[in-house]
């Protein structure tokens, strides 16, 4: 029988220490050098062991801070449904309220950003045409659970009160409600979900391992005239969130 790889042995050792309450949830682990010295292995072996445990939700990596024992976390249910667009607030806020969690989001908007080829194709515009780009980090109880990058054609909202999705009197109202302000009726959305591995930037923002599984949703809203009015790339960590599609039935 082949010998167990060193990093798996170290992963078992770290897991055992947590089970025996040597380290409690929220505790910061000693440095990789210290753990390696105690266990008789190199830092790279410790790194691989920690990455494995991070992917399993046992540990949590925090950029620029270190590695911690993960707090017990229930998966957040993210419901996708056009029926959940309401004037009173965002679907994300509804989901978090139903779970008894505090919700919030951070955003950054840039106007007049040239559209990359893929975004231009999704919006039905020429590559390089100007867009309003907004990046979001959605938080549940202060922890990031979802990322999103939204693109809107600049010529659609330029000079109106809704040109900035998170600014002005209609800030945070959502695409459907904001477009209604300027007389554009959003009739439907198309979403394309697919699994992939997190990028280094996404992993850092979400507090997950770089190779951890995420669900990447490409969403595009369309007006009743068939024009794409917004497209977004939504990234959800698979270990922390479950995605549920709610399908309204017309009678």
Automatic annotation (TrEMBL):
Domain HTH gntR-type as annotated: residue spans = 4-72
Q: Which InterPro entries match?
A: Bact_HTH_transcr_reg (IPR050679), Chorismate_lyase_/UTRA_dom_sf (IPR028978), Tscrpt_reg_HTH_GntR (IPR000524), UTRA (IPR011663), WH-like_DNA-bd_sf (IPR036388), WH_DNA-bd_sf (IPR036390)
Q: Which residues form a coiled coil?
A: none
Which SUPFAM superfamilies does this UniProt record tie to the protein? Chorismate lyase-like, Winged helix' DNA-binding domain
> Superkingdom of the source?
Bacteria
Q: Which Gene3D superfamilies match?
A: Chorismate lyase-like, Winged helix-like DNA-binding domain superfamily/Winged helix DNA-binding domain
Keyword entries, A-Z: DNA-binding, Transcription, Transcription regulation
Q: Which PANTHER family match?
A: GNTR-FAMILY TRANSCRIPTIONAL REGULATOR, MANNOSYL-D-GLYCERATE TRANSPORT/METABOLISM SYSTEM REPRESSOR MNGR-RELATED
The name on file for this protein is GntR family transcriptional regulator
């Amino acid at each position: 029988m082949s010998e167990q790889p060193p990093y798996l042995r170290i992963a078992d050792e770290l897991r055992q220490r947590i089970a025996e309450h040597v380290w409690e949830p929220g505790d910061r682990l000693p440095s990789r050098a210290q753990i390696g010295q105690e266990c008789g292995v190199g830092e790279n072996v410790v790194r691989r062991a920690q990455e494995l445990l991070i992917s399993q939700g046992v540990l949590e990596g925090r950029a620029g801070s270190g590695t911690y024992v993960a707090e017990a976390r229930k998966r957040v249910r993210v419901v996708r449904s056009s029926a959940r667009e309401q004037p009173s607030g965002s679907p994300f806020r509804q989901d978090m309220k139903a779970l008894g969690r505090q919700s919030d989001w951070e955003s950054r908007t840039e106007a007049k950003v040239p559209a990359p080829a893929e975004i231009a194709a999704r919006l039905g515009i020429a590559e390089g045409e100007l867009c309003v780009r907004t990046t979001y980090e959605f938080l549940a109880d202060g922890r990031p659970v979802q990322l999103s990058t939204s693109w809107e054609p600049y010529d659609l909202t330029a000079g109106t009160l809704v040109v900035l999705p998170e600014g002005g009197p209609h800030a945070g109202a959502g695409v459907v409600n904001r477009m209604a302000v300027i007389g554009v009726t959003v009739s439907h959305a198309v979403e394309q979900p697919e699994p992939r591995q997190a990028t280094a930037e996404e992993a850092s923002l979400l507090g997950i391992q770089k190779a951890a599984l995420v669900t990447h949703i490409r969403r595009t809203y369309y007006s009743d005239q068939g024009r794409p009015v917004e497209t977004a790339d939504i990234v959800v960590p698979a270990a922390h969130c479950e995605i549920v599609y709610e399908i309204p039935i017309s009678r």
